[in-house]
Amino acid sequence: MGGPHYGGGMARYLEVHPHDPQPRLVAQAVAVLREGGVIAYPTDSCYALGTTMGSHDGADRIRHLRHLDDKHHFTLVCADFAQLGQLVHLDNAAFRAIKAATPGPYTFILQATPEVPRRLAHAKKRSVGVRIPDHPVTAAIVRELGEPILSSSLLMPGHDWPMTEGWQIREELDHELDAVVDAGDCGTTPTTVVDWTSGAPEVVREGAGDPDRFR
Fold first, then answer.
1. Considering the domain boundaries, does residue 133 fall inside one?
2. What is the pTM of this model?
3. What is the DSSP letter of 88?
4. 49-77, pLDDT tens digit by residue?
């Protein structure tokens, strides 16, 4: 790809098998991320925008695309529970409940560890959103990358619902993204968000995950 081109180019379009993602295509998506690029990729709730934790430019581009301010809570998408546990502080109750609910369509807001760059955590609370999606393509990309993806739902300004088809994302955002990972139709329901920063779970958004297990 010859280094970051960002904005103005055409997005690489990767049609990936939803259940058995091709390693060659996963590697291409990861190469874009490692160069600081922004990708659209599927999850178990809806399509998301992703970049690496170290890419200031990528985070700024996602904020610009979605018209978000600098108070927006990004989510760190993890491959497994071990990775999640390095990013946030978990007491025994949170550990057991979150482990039982993952992988799945939940985002958990918890106190960040020093592993999380200060600029990615909530300024006052030092909290961050984390999740482990139950989607083979997401899992393959995060495992190959070797670190969490800095992520935000692909819900564009003025839209009521996220875009659900890879070709549609490519058509609308071709010059804004560096790659579109198309694994077929994704849902429109965002994750259920559970805030654990007070020491007990509080469901702050009902979504794809069953909220009753955290009440």
1. yes
2. 0.93
3. B
4. 999 999 999 999 999 999 988 777 789 99
